[in-house]
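Teaching assistant here, posting this on the class forum so everyone can see the example we discussed in section. The complex has two components, and the goal was to see what a joint structure prediction looks like when all of them are supplied at once.
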Amino acid sequence: VKPGIPIKSVAIIGPGLLGGSLALALAGGSRCAVRVWGRRPEVVAQLRLRCPSAVASTDIETAVAGADLVVLCTPVGIMAGLAERLRPALAPGAVVTDTGSVKGAIVEELEPLLGGGARFVGSHPMAGGDQVGLQHARADLFHDAACIVTPTPRTDAATVEKVSAFWTSLGCRVFHLPPGIHDRAIALVSHLPHITAAALVRAAAGPDAPGALDLVGPGFRDSTRIAMGPVPMWDEILLQNRDAVLAAIRSLRSHLDQVETALSQKTSLAGILADARETRLRLQRATLK
Amino acid sequence: VKPGIPIKSVAIIGPGLLGGSLALALAGGSRCAVRVWGRRPEVVAQLRLRCPSAVASTDIETAVAGADLVVLCTPVGIMAGLAERLRPALAPGAVVTDTGSVKGAIVEELEPLLGGGARFVGSHPMAGGDQVGLQHARADLFHDAACIVTPTPRTDAATVEKVSAFWTSLGCRVFHLPPGIHDRAIALVSHLPHITAAALVRAAAGPDAPGALDLVGPGFRDSTRIAMGPVPMWDEILLQNRDAVLAAIRSLRSHLDQVETALSQKTSLAGILADARETRLRLQRATLK
C-alpha cells in the first residue's frame, strides 16, 4: 500500500477466486494485516492453510473488527445483506469497497447503506477466469489488471484515493469511471464476449454440421474459453446489467450486418477486417511489455 | 510416413506458415526428401537456411520433379494457376493435395485439372495462427491438429489413403468429409469466430463507450485474438465460403435472439449458459491429454 495512505488491516469478505487471491497477495507482501470472512467453515479452514498469517472467521463481525478497508468479494446479489450485517462492526473511518462486475445497481444499494456514501466506493478489478473458487486463487491475479473505481457525486475524494492506492499497490492499472459509464464499457468488453462465446459454442454444436466440434483449432478454443465460466455468476451479471448488455448486442449486430451486406454483394471485407485487425494490434502492443 | 504407404519425396508449394512448418517437420524427422517451391527468391533463401536438407527453388518444375506427393500451401486464389504450371512436371502416379481453408470451390477447380481427379484430394489441416509467414513456421505446428481430407465420388481410395497417412504421420487427427460438408462445419468453427472477433473489437472501439478498450481483461483478449489474422487471406476465405458463412451468421443470430429475449423478459439465462458451458467443457476434456 502506497506510503502516506495507511492501510493497516484489510478485511476480505468472501474467499473465492478474487478474495482468496487478495488474501494471498496482501499476506505474501506482509503489506498489512489480513482478515477474512467466509460463510463455509471448510473454506475458512482452507484459507487458513493457504494463508496462515490471516485471521479467518465465519463470524463477519470478527472479520471486520478494526479493519481500515473492507473488500466485498462475494457474488453481487448477496452484498447488500452482508453490508447490513457488517456495518455495526465497522471501525470508525473504515472504507468499504467491492469487486462486482456490475456497478450501477450495487453502488446504488451499498452507498446509502454504508455511512451515507462517504465511506463506500465501488471497484471492479478485471481479473478472474473461467475457474473460480479459492483453489484457483493466486497472489499475482491482480498484477497488471485494469481496475475501475467508480465514484459518484456523493463519494469523498479521500475514499477514492484510499481505494485507488490499494489497487495500485497490488499492481493494478486504476481507472475512475462513474458506475453507469463503467457498466456500458464492461458490457462491451466483458459481458458481450461472454454471450458471443456461448452463442458460438451453441451454433457449432447445433444440427447444421454434426461433428463440427471435432474439427476445432486453437482459434475456436481461444474465442470460446470464457463460455466455461460459472453459470450462476454470469446469469446474475448479465441480468443486473441488462440495459447495457442489450445495447452491446445491438452494436454487435450492426457490425454483423456490415459483414452480411458485403458477403451478400460479393464485395471485399478487407476494410472491415483491417479496421478490426489494426484496433486489436494496438491493444496487443499496449498490453505487451 | 506410415509404413506400407511409401512417400519418398514431398514437394511443398509455397513456404509460408503452413508450407514452412511442413518442410521443417518432414526434414526434421528425415522422413522423406523435401522439395520446396517459393515465388520470391528471398523466401527460398530463408527456407534453405532454416531447412538445409530441402531442395528449394523458384522454378516450380524443378520443385515437383520426382515428388510422390505435392502439397499446395499457397493462398487459395492462386492454386489453380499453379496447378496448371506444375502439372506437366508431375511424376507418374504423383498425388496432389492442398491446405486451403475452403474446399468446395477449390476441389471443383483442382480435381479436373489434375489427372481427371484420380490423383487429387483436398486437405485442410486446422493449424495456423494469427501470425503468418515462414518466420513463424515451426516443426510441431501440425501436432494434434485436426486435418480434414475431402474426397469426392471421383477420388480413388488409394489417393485418400496416401494423403491421410501423410497427415497422420505428422501427428494430425484425420477426418474424412465431403467438401461441402467440410465448408459448412468450418464456417461454424473457424470462419464465424473470425467474424465475431472482428465485430467484438469494432463494437468495443465504437462511440458507445470511449476508452472501453483500456479496460479489457484476459477474456476479451482471448476472444478476439484471431482478429489479428492476415486480412487478405481472411477476405478470400470468407468470400469463397460465403453461403456457408452467411448461414453460420444466421445461426449465431438465432442464439443471440434467445439471449435478448431472456434479458428483455428478465428471465434467467442459466439454461443457455449451462448448455454452452457443458459443451465447451466436453471439448476441453476431449482436447486435454
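For the discussion questions: The mean pLDDT of chain B is 93. The CA atoms of residues 59 and 149 of chain B lie 28 Å apart. Think about how each of these relates to the inputs above.
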